[in-house]
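Bench notes, afternoon.
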Amino acid sequence: MNNRKKLLLLLAILGIMLLTACGRSDLTLTVNSDGSFHASISYGITKALVANDEAMSDVKSLITDSLDQNDIPYTEAEDEERVTITVERDFADLSQLTSQEAWKGISFVPLFTAGNDGSGIWTRIEEGRLKFSGTLNAQTFNTQGIIGDMEDTSGFGGRVRIILPQEAEAFSGGQIDGNSYIWSGTGEDSLTMDLVSAPMYEDDGPDGEAAKTGEQAERKTTLRDGIITLLVVLALLAIVAGVVIAARKKNRQ
């Protein structure tokens, strides 16, 4: 079977999987206080709705072939109901998070983009706040080519969860769970998402590489504590020196 026929077969299998509500793509992004990010992408396949082991292998390959080709590590877990493939990725800063190259090979997830072009989740820093906005639908999850012609696209489940270091300043379009902000739906849904963090940055910076106010405060506290410790040590040394000098004078008398 040539590559084109194999691809069409795999797409058909995935289409059936989506129609029978056995496909999920869940993305969790954790925002760290130092300005770095951690993404966890989880793909779930319901075993009972896949015909046999060969079909399961074909469905999994839709995800893992791209990961393997791009040397992206992943883990695979299985229980009685579901096979789950998980990818973990770390991003040092906002410029890495919004780099298309950083997401290359990771399928069926909305990307975080530096521009408001509608292709993913627009992510930027404005007025010292981290902001996310976009529309979550089949297009942003990159599944429209598979499920676009189907009458029922409710079988595909997707979720985006963003975890902030502290409570958000503004939020709309989903659910709140502590400092987690969640948008979830199916291939039929089109969800508008908006999220604005509490102040995190001193300034916007050209690439979102601004110094974090929390990090600066921690550094200032460390510096202040160091200065206080140094002053205390110098004071003690001065006292000791005074005692020694006084003792020497007394001995000379």
